Amino acid sequence: MNGTGSTAERRIVVGVDGSESSRSALRWAVRQAALTGATVEAVITWEYPAVHGWEMPLSDADFSTAAEQTLAQVVEEEGDPAHPVEIGRRVERGNAARVLLDAAEGAELLIIGSRGHGGFTGALLGSVGQHCVHHATCPVVVVRDTAHRDTAHDTAHHDTAHDTAHQDTARAEHADVPAAGR
Predict the structure, then answer these.
(1) Which of 9, 80, 83, 133 lies at a CB distance of 3.0 to 4.6 Å from 34, suitable for a disulfide?
(2) Distinct helix (H) and strand (E) counts, the chain
């Protein structure tokens, strides 16, 4: 964080990919920027899909246009009239983690969702998030999308709580057995 306090230099970078988690991250970034007088830079990236042995008749413009449209839609839908802040948009081709880390150079914060469209949905933090948390030069905030919790996560949490309670009951039932006899 800079010590000058100048709002022109205060910047929060947020990764956006259209997922619910990234929408939550953008909302969080907008509220934080309103509180601190910073601007928000919403960043979306794209890469060619990995397809081997098949040529696709798509150009950079096709992917870039789709990314621009997604970013514009998310910024429009998630902007907060109660907290008006300047939201810049950045669309860039490249590895998402690398682009976000480069964009966050000199920023006060890097905000990311807990998981995006990639990977498997049970992950607590996706590979992009993991890389950013470990390599960013500024503080990183990981925002969970609590409004759209994963049912598998809720079930796993319930099962773990049930198993722990069952183990505690079993221990209590055998508390009078000497340790050597267990």
Answers:
(1) 83
(2) 5, 5
